[in-house]
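In this supplementary section we document a worked example of the pipeline. Step one takes a protein sequence of length 169 as its only input; no multiple sequence alignment statistics are reported here. Step two produces a three-dimensional model, which step three serialises into structure tokens for compact storage. The input and output of this example are shown verbatim.
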Amino acid sequence: MTMRRFALTTGLVAGTLAFSGAAAFADTINLGGTVSNYSTISSTATAGAGSLNLYGEGTATADVVVKVADIALTSNNTEGVELKAEADSALTGGTNGVTLAYQVKLVDDNATAPAAGAFSATSDTVNVDNTDFSSNAANQDLYIEYDGPEYLDPDTYSSTITMTVESYL
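The serialised model returned by step three reads:
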């Protein structure tokens, strides 16, 4: 019996050693995924946007500042985004082609209206970082500034402002 146990134990050890020298097989599984940039802009024109007092009837007024839109911005970009407002053209008369230049400015939602001296161009860009988002939304106000001339040809004047949002990356 002892010899039999010895032979059985020796056989098990030899078999284990034989299997331990065999090559192991392995495979890898690559994981990945993509999250698209989700950023949207929603603008709501104020009542003043469509009824600007352009003066031009014998009285001039310099440095007219008007809030023209409330801007809501949403994004999932944790690095933040760049919000840009750009005037597509000056206010232009529909039939006479006369123009009235204006400048744009973005400010934080419900902030004090910017002074006329804060405007410097027909476009403005603000960086909205991830700390500005509350429930993935950040709000801004859009203002324009123009000088109402003493005389301006009778006509209906219009223009558009394009809003864009881009990733910091």
